[in-house]
Specification:
The protein is mostly helical and 322 residues long. 74% of the residues lie in helices and 0% in strands. The chain contains 9 helices and no strands. The chain is rod-shaped, with a radius of gyration of 36 Å.
Length: 322
């Protein structure tokens, strides 16, 4: 223990001859070693603000860790499928248009493998379903030999068109979330909360500076008397004018930085931006699900009609056979 005390005293002596930055470092080291007797305490209200800011920062980090996936187009793309460059070359709508003018299986195949006209098509779950449905529809059409059209093939083609529209709605949702939610929350995390962190660091620096100045004054101007070191208390009447002025200057700077940090932290906590951004996230999700519902709700009776017609034809064929 005596060795630690001697080390702490040597730090105090060295601290009087070095720069403010190193003085703070020595003061911090003494505190970590338990050799600092008088550590300036921060106001309880300030500490409460720090806890609230830390909680807000964790909230942003947790939610952004999940919602950042909206910046990744293929976040719901099935990992087990393999689509070729030709599969992704044209939209489902373009392929259906080309297929409508095909008069032979060869032309139909050529329509499906037509060279791309733009960038590869999106890799989303809905787009993948659309492409798989259209390809499946054409397989059935090519093998259909009966009268009229294969009802399942017709239904799959209509489903493909609908799913592509749902996929486009999902991409529109993602774009809105990126610009109206992710951008705002990243700004709060990387700018506003960073300002608060910087202000808190300045408070800690000035607090360490103040305590290092007090420690230095104690080591050079205190009248020890018969008291043990832990019974002593800093008496301003026993300080030299220079030491008193240095302490007051450090105290003023500490108070100034603390007040500034309080203002910065309150501004971060009181700003309505995070909640406004969250409302925008929900609005984008509502709009997407609303569009998806409308698209599929429009499709459902069409598919149901095809199904009922097929069941009617099936029943009639069984009655004729019997």
């Amino acid at each position: 223990m005596d060795n630690f005390k001697a080390f702490g005293n040597s730090l105090s002596n060295i601290g009087s001859q070095i720069t403010p930055s190193l003085s703070r470092t020595f003061q911090y080291t003494k505190e970590q070693l338990g050799q600092a007797e008088d550590k300036t305490q921060l106001p309880p209200d300030y500490i409460d603000l720090e806890k609230r800011v830390d909680a807000l920062k964790q909230v942003h980090q947790k939610l952004l860790a999940v919602t950042s996936q909206y910046s990744n187009e293929a976040y719901d793309y099935p990992p087990n499928i393999k689509e070729t460059f030709q599969d992704l070359g044209r939209t489902v709508s373009e392929k259906v248009h080309l297929l409508s003018s095909a008069s032979s299986p060869a032309e139909a195949q050529a329509a499906l493998t037509a060279p791309p006209t733009a960038k590869p098509q999106p890799k989303t779950f809905n787009h993948a379903i659309a492409r798989a449905s259209l390809a499946s529809s054409q397989l059935l059409h090519q093998q259909h030999t009966g009268a009229g059209e294969d009802p399942l093939a017709t239904a799959l083609e209509k489903y493909a068109l609908a799913e592509e529209r749902v996929g486009e709605a999902r991409l529109a949702q993602d774009a809105q979330i990126q610009s109206r939610f992710l951008a705002g929350w990243n700004t709060t995390l990387n700018t506003n909360l960073m300002f608060a962190t910087r202000a808190r660091r300045n408070v800690e620096k000035t607090r360490l500076t103040l305590d290092s100045v007090k420690s230095r004054a104690k080591g050079t101007t205190w009248k020890m008397g018969g008291m043990s070191p832990r019974e002593e208390h800093l008496n301003t009447d026993e300080l030299s004018p220079e030491a008193q002025e240095e302490i007051e200057k450090a105290e003023d700077e500490f108070v100034t930085q603390t007040e500034e940090a309080v203002g910065v932290m309150k501004n971060v906590l009181d700003t309505p931006e995070p909640l406004r951004n969250l409302a925008e996230l929900i609005a984008a999700q509502v709009e997407y699900h609303k569009k998806a519902y409308e698209i599929l709700n429009e499709l459902a009776p069409v598919i149901e009609g095809l199904q009922l017609q097929q069941e009617e034809n099936y029943r009639k064929s069984r009655e004729s056979a019997s």
